[in-house]
Amino acid sequence: MNILCWVIFKQLRLLIIHVISGAVDGSIYIIDTFKRLENAMYSTRDQFKNLEIDTIGSPTYFPTTCPVQNEYISSKVDLSIIIPVYNEEENIAELYERLCSILSVMDKSYEIIFVDDGSTDNTFQEIKAIPDSNIRIIKFQRNYGKAAALSCGFKKSKGDFVITLDGDLQDDPKEIPRFLEKLKEFDMVSGWKVKRKDPISKTFPSKCFNKLTRFITGVKINDFNCGYKAYNKYVIKNINLYGELHRYIPALAYWKGYTVGEIEVEHHSRIHGKSKYGAGRLLKGFLDLITVTFLMMYKKRPLHIFGGIGFLLGFSGVIISLYLMVLWIMGVKIGDRPLLMLGILLTVIGAQFISLGLIGELITNSRNNDDYIIKYDSYEMENAR
C-alpha cells in the first residue's frame, strides 16, 4: 500500500508540472504507468525501477503521428519479424531503415519484434528511439541465449507468418518477399548462405557441422546455422526451444511432420560490432545434436534406448559367466580371475539400465501422451456449425 501511495504522489506531481508547462500528454503518461502497475505489483521502490518507468524525469514521447504501440494492443497482423539482438547498437538504425524500405512496399500489416538478449551497450535505447508504432520491444534481464530470445519472440508474435533474422546486418531484408512466396509450398523455409561472407574459421566448421546434422536428422537442407528463416504460425506454436536448440529448428519441425524448404539468400559481411560465437559453439552444437536426436527418437519410448543398452551389457555378462561356469565344472579355478568380476559387473549394470528404462516408461505413461498435431478435424468443423 505504501509503494502504491508513493507512485501516486510522484505521478500527480509530474502531472501538475506538465499541465503548467503545457505538456498535454502528461495524463497519457499517468495512464500508461498505472497499466504497467496492474500487470506487476512490486513491493519495493527498487523493483519499480525494473519496469523502466521514469518516475523522476520528464517522459519522452514519440510524435502523435506515430504513436507507440505496447503490449496492451492485441490487433492481429499478417507478418511478424523477430530479431534477437545482443550488443548491436551500431546496427539497429540501419537495420530498421532496410526493413522499412521493403515492408513499406508490401501489402501486409506487420510488427517488428526486437528481443534484446541482455545487451550491455545502448542497443535497448537505440530501439526505443525509433518512432514506429509497429515495433515491439522485449528486453531480458540478462543474456539467456538466442534460443530463449526466439522462443520469447515466438510466443509474443501475432502474425500469420513469422520471419526471423539476425540483427548484425548480414541478413538482407530484401529476401522477405521470396520467403513468403516459398511458404506457399512449405510449412517453414530456411535460408542458405551459399556465398557466406565470414572467415574460414567459421565457414569450414559450419560446413562439417551441416553435413553431419543433415546425415543424422534426415532433413535435406544445406544450412542449419542460418538464422534467416520463415514459418507459418502453426509451426512455431508447436516447437519448444531451450538451451542451444535454435539451430535445430528445421529438424524439430521435420520430426513433427512439417515440410521444410530452403532458398538461397544473400549474405553480407559484418560492418559493425563483432561476432558473438566462439570455438565453444562447436562442442555445444554437437552435444545439442545428440540431445535432439535422443529426444525425437526415444522421448516416448525410453525403454528402447535404456533397455537396448542394458540388454547388450547384461547379455555380455551372462555369456562371460556361463563360460566361467563351464571352466569351474571342468575343475579350473576361477575365483581369482578378473573375468569373473567383469561378468558380474556387466550383468548388474545391464539390469540397472533395464530398470531405468522401465522407470522412464512409467513416468512417460503417467503423463499426457498426446504428443501429436492435428491438421484437420471434422469433429471441430461440425461443432463450429
List the helices and strands and how they pair.
Elements: H1 2-20, H2 26-39, H3 45-49, E1 77-85, H4 92-103, E2 110-116, H5 123-128, E3 135-139, H6 146-156, E4 159-164, H7 176-182, E5 188-192, H8 200-217, E6 229-232, H9 233-236, H10 249-255, E7 260-264, H11 280-298, H12 302-329, H13 338-366, H14 378-383
Parallel strand pairs: 1-2, 1-4, 2-3, 5-7
Antiparallel strand pairs: 4-6, 5-6
Number of strands: 7
Give the amount of beta strand, in percent: 5-15%
Strand arrangement, major sheet: 3-2-1-4-6-5-7
Instruction: Determine the structural class based on helices, strands and strand pairing.
Output: alpha/beta
**Average residue-wise pLDDT:** 78
Number of helices: 14
Helix content: 40-55%
User: What would you give as the CATH superfamily of the largest domain?
Assistant: Spore Coat Polysaccharide Biosynthesis Protein SpsA, Chain A
SSE ordering:
HHHEHEHEHEHEHEHHEHHHH
Low-confidence stretches: 15-31, 33-73
Largest sheet, in brief, is: 7 strands, mixed
Give the count of structural domains: 3
**Which CATH architecture of the largest domain would you pick?**
Alpha-Beta Complex
CATH topology of the largest domain: Spore Coat Polysaccharide Biosynthesis Protein SpsA, Chain A
Rg from alpha-carbon coordinates:
28 Å
| Overall form | elongated
Which CATH class of the largest domain is shown? Alpha Beta
| N-to-C span | 50 Å
